[in-house]
């Protein structure tokens, strides 16, 4: 089968190319990206096409032409995996919405016009509606988003695009993965750029280095290694699966577990409203890259039940959540990257 990956040079895309290259069911892979990656592993064994799904258009005719061009790029693919997503510049809200929500709509329309049999999209735990407990939720929990998080709002809007695609084109297998935080060493430099900014010392974030670990009280999160997410995408593609799948590794990391992984000193649990005010001030002054919406989403995202992925896809992660986080922290402190435009140092 022929698989096209839109956003193939990013964190998840790079891992997925590694997985696809080792699959006997996959005969050819097309990578689609805004900028061409260098001819090194895992990119050099992939066919490439450059395309900007966030291109601006001003008339319906221009929009139709853009989608037709993308359909020509994707023609012949049995499955299209859509991973492209913009996190920065988060001060430019219209830019993010055009890339993330309109970009997904364009890829979906292009797949319909190209006669693609399966469309697989990267959703997120961030698409879910808020909760105020630690009860695991399966894929039936509403994907209404967190209103104060641009990432969550756009992920929920993306889900509506996928709902419409499913309803209007039932012959197409539409699947969506909702992963937790995705980590690997090669994403360290990217994580630093997207969430910390230039003024936060990376060396302090090496595992076991912080003498005091301040964390928002009540924080708990799930994590998964990029290679394990890639295996989930691969299982969806080769089985022709439909519908949503929660993807996360065990265990759930609370503030105590996070403090052990991050620092060598005591945990300081800070009231979330205080953390939010500090984050807002830093983001508004352009001193910190992450906006307060990321905190809002982290504090209200549900714990995901991953039973469906394990039972229907036969997916079992090889890396634990602590291992994935530790690998990323080491990559972050070392400013590790990969020679592709999104992951560069």
Inertia-based shape: globular
The CA-CA distance between the termini, in Å, is 34 Å
Biggest sheet features:
7 strands, parallel
Secondary-structure class: alpha/beta
**What series of H and E elements makes up the topology?**
EHEEHEHEHEEHEEEHEEHEHHHH
CATH homologous superfamily designation of the domain at 2-182 and 224-248 and 304-318: NAD(P)-binding Rossmann-like Domain
Total number of helical segments? 11
Strand order of the largest sheet: 3-2-1-4-5-6-11
What is the CATH third-level topology name of the domain at 2-182 and 224-248 and 304-318?
A: Rossmann fold
Q: Tell me the radius of gyration.
A: 19 Å
Task: Describe the secondary-structure layout.
Elements: E1 2-6, H1 11-21, E2 28-33, E3 47-50, H2 60-74, E4 79-82, H3 93-114, E5 118-122, H4 150-168, E6 173-179, E7 181-183, H5 188-196, E8 213-216, E9 220-221, E10 223-225, H6 226-239, E11 243-247, E12 253-254, H7 255-262, E13 267-270, H8 272-284, H9 292-300, H10 307-312, H11 321-333
Parallel strand pairs: 1-2, 1-4, 2-3, 4-5, 5-6, 6-11, 7-10, 8-13
Antiparallel strand pairs: 9-12
Helix pairs in contact: 1-6, 2-3, 3-4, 5-11, 7-11, 8-9
């Amino acid at each position: 089968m022929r698989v096209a990956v839109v956003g193939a040079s990013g964190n998840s895309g790079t891992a997925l190319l590694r997985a696809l290259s080792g699959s006997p069911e996959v005969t050819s892979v097309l990578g689609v990206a805004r900028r061409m990656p260098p001819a090194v592993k895992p990119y050099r064994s992939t066919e490439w096409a450059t395309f900007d799904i966030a291109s601006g258009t001003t008339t319906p005719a221009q929009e139709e032409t853009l989608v037709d061009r993308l359909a020509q790029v994707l023609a012949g693919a049995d499955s299209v995996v859509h991973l492209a997503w913009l996190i920065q510049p988060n001060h430019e809200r219209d830019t993010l919405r055009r890339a993330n929500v309109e970009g997904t709509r364009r890829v979906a329309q292009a797949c319909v016009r190209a006669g693609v049999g399966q469309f697989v999209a990267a959703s997120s735990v961030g698409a879910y509606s808020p909760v105020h407990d630690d009860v695991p939720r399966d894929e039936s929990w509403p994907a209404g988003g967190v209103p104060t998080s641009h990432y969550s709002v756009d992920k929920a809007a993306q889900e509506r695009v996928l709902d419409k695609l499913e309803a209007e084109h039932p012959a197409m297998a539409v699947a969506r993965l909702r992963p937790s935080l995705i980590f690997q060493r090669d994403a360290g430099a990217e994580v630093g750029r997207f969430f910390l900014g230039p003024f936060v010392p990376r060396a302090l974030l090496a595992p076991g280095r912080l003498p005091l670990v301040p964390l928002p009280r009540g924080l708990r999160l799930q994590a998964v290694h990029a290679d394990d997410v890639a295996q989930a995408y691969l299982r969806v593609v080769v089985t022709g699966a439909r519908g949503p799948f929660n993807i996360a590794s065990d265990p759930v990391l609370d503030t105590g577990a996070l403090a052990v992984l991050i620092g060598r000193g005591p945990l300081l649990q800070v009231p979330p409203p205080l953390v939010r005010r500090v984050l807002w001030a830093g983001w508004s002054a352009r001193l910190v890259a992450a906006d307060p919406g990321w905190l809002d989403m982290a504090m209200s995202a549900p714990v995901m039940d991953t039973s469906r992925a394990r039972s229907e896809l036969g997916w079992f992660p090889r890396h634990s959540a602590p291992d994935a986080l530790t690998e990323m922290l080491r990559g972050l402190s070392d400013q590790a990257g990969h020679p592709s435009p999104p992951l560069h140092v």
